[in-house]
C-alpha cells in the first residue's frame, strides 16, 4: 500500500512538473502501478488460503486455482533482469555480439587462419583477398588473425581492471557512506583528486612512471576509475542506510561490517551491474587510446589500439590496416553499451514494461 | 434541491496484466447528487480509486479498458464515450479532484498564488489583477489565515494542512459540479483532518456541489458522508445512506469491518477480525468474492454470483443471505 | 505496583539544524528538541503507549529508549542498570532482550533476503550458527505468527502488507525478547488486517509475557491495546494515565482536542460537540516559550506563555498544565 501511494505521489509529481496538470499520468507508470496492485492482490489471496479456516467449504471442482497460483512465484531481480534484456531488442543484439566477442577471444588460437606474429616481408600491405581476408599489415602479418588475438587483450583489459576498480570503489564507497565523518571526508577528497584529472591523462602519468606494458595498464586503469564508482556506491549507501531494514538489523545487534555486507552490498548490486557493463567499454577504449599513444601495449602485441596507431601511416594507401581494428573496437564498445542501456532500463521501475 | 450530477451505470474497468484480466472495477453503479457527499469506502485493492479515475477518463487506454456496457452520464454526455479532447475540458473544470498528498500535486517551483491564478486566467480569460482578486477570495474561502501573505508562498513553505486547503481552493476555482476527493485527509494528523473535514462540509453546504469522497476510514465516512458505497474486490457490496449503514449494516463484510474497528469512546476486550485477505482479482472466485472470508457463507455463495437485493427501497446489498428462497433451500 | 522493566530519567535528544540555503549558510541555526526532558517507567508485562501527532518526537523517544539513537543527556535504566554504561557483553544481552517492529513493512525488510533468512538473522547474529537448529526455530516462529511454512523461501516483495508485518513480528520475537517497541506497527495496514495484527500482538503478549512500548498516532488503536497512555506534544509529555480515564476525562486541553478530533464511526454522534483546534503544529525548531501548547490553547493565560508547566502526578495520572480541566 505504501509503495503504491508512493507511486501515486511520484506520478502526480511528475505529471505536474511536466504538464502542470495532475491529470497527465504516463501510461507506463500507471501500468506499473497496476501491476503492483495485481501483485498485492495475488499475495493477499495466498494468505486467504492459509488463513481461511473455511477452505474445506470451498467446492473443489477438479482443480483449485489458488494452489496453482501458489506455485507462481513472482519474478525476482535476476529474472526481471533477463526478461528486461530479452524484451529489449537492442540489448539482445548487444548480448549476442558480446557473446561472440568472448567466444572469439577464448577460441582465438584455434580459429585464426594465420599466425598473428609471423612476419613475412614479401607479403607486406596486401589488400584483402581470399587468403588474407582483410589483408596484411606493413610487416606482412595477417590482420584478421591479429584482430582475433587482439580480442583476448581487449577482453582481459575490459574485465580485470574494471572489476578491480569496481571492487575498490565499492568498498571505499560503502565505508565512506556508512561510517561518515572523517573517514568519509578522507575517502571522498581522495576520490575528488582522482576524478579531478582527466582519466586518460592520469593513466598516462601512471604508465610513464611505471613503464609501458600491458600489466601496467591493469594497474593504471584500476587506480584511475574507482573514484566515480565510490561516489555512486556512497550515494546508494547513504540512502540504503536510512532504510528501516538497516535500522532493524542494528536493533538486533548486527555488526557494522556485517550490515555492509549483508544488507547494503546486495542492494547496490543492480547499479553495480549497470556500472560494470558501462565501464567495460570505457576500459577497452582507454587501453586502445593508451596503446595508440604508445604508452600502452608494446609491439608486437596485437592490441587494437596499437594496430590503429601503426596503421595510421598507411591510412590513405592501405586503409584496411587502421580501419579494421577501429571497427572491432567500435563494435565491442557499442555492444557493451547496448547491454548497459538495456540493463539500466530493465532495472528502472519506471521504464519497465 | 438535490439533482443528479453524475450517474454511473454498470461501470466495468478491466486491466490487462501478464497473468490475465484484472477486473479492478466490476459493475459499479451509483448516482452522485448535488449537495450530497457520497462516501466510497473500501480497503486497498478494492477498486475505489480506479472508480474515480474511470470517471475522469484517466484509465490508461491500452492496458486498462472501460467495457462498452459501462455508462457514466454527466450533463447528458456519456463520459466513457468522449474523446480525450472533450474529457480534458471537463476535467479540472466541471469535475475537480483532490489528492491524498497535496505536495505532489502542487508545482514546487511556482508560488501558490500563481498556480491558483493560472486556471482562472485560462478558463475565464481574466486579467492578472482580476485573477488575483478572485484567487485571494478562494484562499479566504478555504480559511487560510493571512491569505495575502500566503499568496506569495511556495508549496514547501506551507504545512500539510495548509497545502490541502490550497488544493481545495484550486479545485474550487473552476466552480466544479463534482469534486472527487481521493483520501484527502489520510496523510494528515487528526487535528488537521478535523479541520479539513469541517471545511469540506462547509463548502458542500455553501456551494451545493456533489462530492465523491474516497476513503478507507469508516470514522470519516460517519462524520462526513450522506450516502455510502462499500466496495470489496471491485464490486459495491452495500449501498445506502450513512445513518442506515452504521445502524443496520447488512453485508457480512460491512458488519465485519465495523466490528474490527477499535473504538475511542468504548473499551473493547477483543476485536473481531475478518480472517484472510482480499482475493486476487485475476482469479476471481466463481461465486461471491467475499465468500472465502465470510463466516456465514454457504455452498451457494461459492457456486453462484450473489444477487443485488434492494431492501426497503433504499438499502442495496450484494449477498445471498437476503434472497430468502435460495438461502433457506441450502 | 508491578515491576519496572525500563525507565527513562530526564531523557533529552536535541538535534542541531542549520538552515543552509545556497547563498546563505548558517543563516539561522536552530535546535530541535525532539525529546525534551522525559521521565517514564515501563512496567513489566504491560503495554505502554506513546501517542501524539507527527513531529511530536514519539518515534525518536522510542528509539532513544532502546539505544538506537544516542541521547543528548539523561539516562535509561533496563532492569535497573544504565544502558549507556553497558560493556560489550551486556550490550549484546540487551540487544537480545529488546526488539522493534516498524511501521512500514515494505521498508523494514531487506528486499534481497529470503523470509527464512530474515527471521533467522537475529538468531544468526546471536550465535545460533547451525542451520538446522536455526531453521527449526524459524519455522516455529512462522507458525506462531500465522505464516505458512512454504513461504520460507520467498522474498518480501511477494507478500502483502499484513503478511510482511507478520514476518516483522516473527523476527522481533526470534530471540525471546522481554520488550518490543511497536513503532506505528499497524498504521500502514487496512482495517481488517489491522485487527488481525492487533489481536496477534495481544495474543503473543499473553503467551510470552511481553512488554510493549506501543507508538502510534491512532488514538482508537491506543485505547484498545494500552495499559497506560502517554500523550506527547512537541517533545514533551503533556498527560499520562490509564486509557479509560484518559480518554473519558482528559485533563490536559491538548488531549481533549486530540480525542475530540478523532472521527467516530457512528453518524448518531455526528452532532456531538466537536472541538476543533485552530492552526498547525508549531515548528519544532525553536518551539514556543512557556507551555508548548500555549499558541493553540484556548485556555492559555499569561503564565502559560512564560512558565513551562511541570509534569505533576495525581493518583495514577500525570499532567503538565497550568489550567487542568475538570
Automatic annotation (TrEMBL), chain B:
One Pfam family hit: ABC_tran
Entry-linked InterPro entries: AAA+_ATPase, ABC_Ni/Peptide_Import, ABC_transporter-like_ATP-bd, Oligopep_ABC_C, P-loop_NTPase
Keyword presence, Glycosyltransferase = no
What does the record give under GO molecular function?
A: ATP binding
Q: Which domain of life is it from?
A: Bacteria
* ABC transporter domain: residues covered: 6-258
Per the record, the major location class is: membrane
NCBIfam families from the xrefs?
oligo_HPY
Which family does the entry's similarity section mention?
Belongs to the ABC transporter superfamily.
Know the name of this protein?
Answer: ABC transporter ATP-binding protein
* Native organism: Fusibacter ferrireducens
Automatic annotation (TrEMBL), chain C:
Spell out the PROSITE patterns in the cross-references. Answer: ABC_TRANSPORTER_1 (PS00211), ABC_TRANSPORTER_2 (PS50893)
Q: Does the keyword ATP-binding apply?
A: yes
In terms of CDD domains, this protein maps to: ABC_NikE_OppD_transporters
Q: Which intervals hold domain ABC transporter?
A: 6-259
Keyword vocabulary terms for this entry: ATP-binding, Nucleotide-binding, Transport
| GO terms, molecular function | ATP binding
| Annotated Gene3D superfamilies | P-loop containing nucleotide triphosphate hydrolases
Keyword Nucleotide-binding on this protein?
A: yes
Describe the family membership recorded for this protein in Swiss-Prot or TrEMBL: Belongs to the ABC transporter superfamily.
Q: What is this protein called?
A: Dipeptide ABC transporter ATP-binding protein
Recorded source organism is Fusibacter ferrireducens
Amino acid at each position: 500500500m505504501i509503495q503504491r501511494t508512493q507511486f501515486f505521489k511520484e506520478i502526480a509529481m511528475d505529471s505536474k512538473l511536466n504538464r502542470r496538470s495532475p491529470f497527465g499520468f504516463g501510461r507506463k507508470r500507471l501500468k506499473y502501478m497496476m501491476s503492483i496492485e495485481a501483485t498485492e492482490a495475488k499475495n493477499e489471496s495466498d494468505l486467504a488460503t492459509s488463513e481461511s479456516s473455511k477452505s474445506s467449504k470451498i467446492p473443489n471442482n477438479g482443480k483449485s486455482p489458488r494452489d496453482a497460483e501458489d506455485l507462481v512465484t513472482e519474478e525476482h531481480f535476476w529474472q526481471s533482469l533477463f526478461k528486461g534484456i530479452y524484451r529489449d531488442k537492442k540489448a539482445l543484439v548487444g548480448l549476442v555480439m558480446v557473446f561472440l566477442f568472448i567466444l572469439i577471444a577464448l577460441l582465438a588460437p584455434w580459429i585464426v587462419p594465420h599466425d598473428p606474429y609471423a612476419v613475412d616481408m614479401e607479403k607486406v600491405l596486401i589488400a584483402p583477398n581470399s587468403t588474407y581476408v582483410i589483408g596484411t599489415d606493413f610487416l606482412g602479418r595477417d590482420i584478421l588473425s591479429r584482430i582475433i588475438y587482439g580480442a583476448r587483450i581487449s577482453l582481459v583489459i575490459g574485465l580485470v581492471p574494471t572489476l578491480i576498480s569496481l571492487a575498490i570503489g565499492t568498498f571505499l564507497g560503502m565505508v565512506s557512506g556508512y561510517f561518515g565523518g572523517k573517514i568519509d571526508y578522507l575517502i571522498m577528497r581522495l576520490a575528488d583528486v582522482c576524478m579531478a584529472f582527466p582519466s586518460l591523462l592520469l593513466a598516462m602519468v601512471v604508465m610513464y612512471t611505471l613503464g609501458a606494458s600491458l600489466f601496467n595498464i591493469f594497474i593504471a586503469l584500476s587506480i584511475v576509475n574507482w573514484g566515480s564508482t565510490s561516489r555512486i556506491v556512497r550515494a546508494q549507501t547513504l540512502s540504503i542506510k536510512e532504510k528501516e531494514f538497516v535500522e532493524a538489523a542494528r536493533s538486533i545487534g548486527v555488526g557494522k561490517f556485517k550490515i555492509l555486507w549483508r544488507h547494503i552490498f546486495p542492494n547496490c548490486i543492480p547499479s553495480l551491474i549497470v556500472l560494470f557493463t558501462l565501464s567495460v567499454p570505457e576500459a577497452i577504449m582507454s587501453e586502445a587510446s593508451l596503446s595508440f599513444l604508445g604508452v600502452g601495449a608494446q609491439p608486437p602485441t596485437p592490441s587494437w589500439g596499437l594496430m590503429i596507431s601503426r596503421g595510421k601511416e598507411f591510412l590513405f594507401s592501405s586503409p584496411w590496416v587502421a580501419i579494421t581494428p577501429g571497427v572491432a573496437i567500435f563494435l565491442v564498445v557499442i555492444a557493451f553499451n547496448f547491454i548497459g542501456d538495456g540493463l539500466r532500463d530493465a532495472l528502472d521501475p519506471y521504464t519497465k514494461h | 434541491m438535490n439533482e443528479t450530477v453524475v450517474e454511473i451505470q454498470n461501470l466495468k474497468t478491466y486491466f490487462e496484466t501478464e497473468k490475465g484480466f484484472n477486473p479492478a472495477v466490476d459493475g459499479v453503479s451509483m448516482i452522485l447528487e448535488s449537495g450530497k457527499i457520497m462516501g466510497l469506502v473500501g480497503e486497498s485493492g478494492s477498486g475505489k480509486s480506479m472508480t474515480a479515475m474511470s470517471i475522469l477518463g484517466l484509465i490508461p487506454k491500452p492496458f486498462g479498458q472501460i467495457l462498452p456496457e459501462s455508462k457514466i452520464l454527466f450533463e447528458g454526455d456519456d463520459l466513457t464515450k468522449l474523446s480525450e479532447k472533450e474529457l480534458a475540458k471537463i476535467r479540472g473544470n466541471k469535475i475537480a479532484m483532490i489528492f491524498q498528498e497535496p505536495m505532489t500535486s502542487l508545482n514546487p517551483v511556482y508560488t501558490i498564488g500563481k498556480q491558483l491564478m493560472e486556471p482562472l486566467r485560462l478558463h475565464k480569460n481574466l486579467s492578472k489583477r482580476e485573477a488575483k482578486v478572485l484567487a485571494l477570495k478562494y484562499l479566504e474561502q478555504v480559511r487560510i489565515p493571512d491569505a495575502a501573505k500566503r499568496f506569495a508562498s511556495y508549496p514547501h513553505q506551507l504545512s500539510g494542512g495548509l497545502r490541502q486547503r490550497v488544493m481545495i481552493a484550486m479545485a474550487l476555482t473552476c466552480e466544479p459540479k463534482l469534486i472527487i476527493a481521493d483520501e484527502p485527509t489520510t496523510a494528515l494528523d487528526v487535528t488537521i483532518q478535523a479541520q479539513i473535514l469541517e471545511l469540506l462540509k462547509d463548502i458542500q453546504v455553501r456551494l451545493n456541489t456533489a462530492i465523491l469522497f474516497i476513503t478507507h476510514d469508516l470514522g470519516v465516512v460517519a462524520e462526513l458522508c450522506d450516502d455510502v458505497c462499500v466496495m470489496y474486490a471491485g464490486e459495491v457490496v452495500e449501498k445506502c445512506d450513512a445513518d442506515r449503514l452504521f445502524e443496520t449494516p447488512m453485508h457480512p463484510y460491512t458488519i465485519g469491518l465495523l466490528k474490527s474497528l477499535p473504538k475511542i469512546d468504548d473499551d473493547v476486550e477483543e476485536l473481531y477480525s475478518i480472517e484472510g485477505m482480499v482475493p486476487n482479482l485475476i482469479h476471481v472466485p466463481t461465486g461471491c468474492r467475499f465468500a472465502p472470508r465470510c463466516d456465514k457463507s454457504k455452498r451457494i455463495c461459492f457456486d453462484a454470483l450473489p444477487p443485488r437485493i434492494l431492501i426497503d427501497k433504499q438499502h442495496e446489498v450484494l449477498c445471498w443471505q437476503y434472497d430468502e428462497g435460495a438461502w433457506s433451500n441450502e | 505496583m508491578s515491576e519496572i522493566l525500563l525507565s527513562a530519567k530526564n531523557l533529552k535528544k536535541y538535534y542541531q539544524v542549520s538552515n543552509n540555503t545556497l547563498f546563505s549558510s548558517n543563516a539561522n541555526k536552530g535546535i530541535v528538541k525532539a525529546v525534551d526532558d522525559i521521565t517514564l517507567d515501563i512496567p513489566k508485562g504491560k503495554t505502554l503507549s506513546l501517542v501524539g501527532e507527527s513531529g511530536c518526537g514519539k518515534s525518536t523517544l522510542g528509539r532513544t529508549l532502546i539505544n538506537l539513537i544516542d541521547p543528548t543527556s539523561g539516562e535509561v535504566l533496563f532492569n535497573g542498570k544504565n544502558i549507556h554504561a553497558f560493556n560489550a557483553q551486556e550490550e549484546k544481552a540487551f540487544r537480545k532482550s529488546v526488539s522493534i517492529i516498524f511501521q512500514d513493512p515494505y521498508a523494514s525488510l531487506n528486499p534481497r533476503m529470503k523470509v527464512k533468512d530474515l527471521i533467522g538473522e537475529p538468531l544468526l547474529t546471536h550465535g545460533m550458527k547451525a542451520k538446522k537448529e536455526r531453521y527449526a526455530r524459524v519455522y516455529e516462529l512462522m507458525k506462531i505468527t500465522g505464516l505458512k511454512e512454504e513461504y520460507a523461501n520467498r522474498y518480501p516483495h511477494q507478500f502483502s502488507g499484513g503478511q510482511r508485518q507478520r514476518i516483522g513480528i516473527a523476527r522481533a520475537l526470534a530471540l525471546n525478547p522481554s520488550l518490543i517497541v511497536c513503532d506505528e506497527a499497524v498504521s500502514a495496514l487496512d482495517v481488517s488486517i489491522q485487527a488481525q495484527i492487533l489481536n496477534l500482538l495481544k495474543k503473543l503478549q499473553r503467551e510470552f509475557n511481553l512488554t510493549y512500548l506501543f507508538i502510534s498516532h491512532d488514538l482508537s488503536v491506543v485505547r484498545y491495546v494500552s495499559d497506560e497512555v502517554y500523550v506527547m506534544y512537541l517533545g514533551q509529555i503533556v498527560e499520562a494515565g490509564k486509557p479509560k480515564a484518559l480518554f473519558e476525562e482528559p485533563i490536559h486541553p491538548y488531549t481533549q482536542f486530540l480525542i475530540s478530533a478523532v472521527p467516530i464511526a457512528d453518524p448518531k454522534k455526528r452532532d456531538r460537540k466537536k472541538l476543533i483546534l485552530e492552526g498547525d503544529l508549531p515548528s519544532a525548531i525553536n518551539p514556543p516559550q512557556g507551555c508548548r501548547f500555549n499558541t493553540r490553547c484556548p485556555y492559555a493565560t499569561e503564565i502559560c506563555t512564560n512558565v513551562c508547566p511541570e509534569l505533576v502526578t495525581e493518583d495514577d495520572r500525570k499532567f503538565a498544565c497550568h489550567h487542568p480541566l475538570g
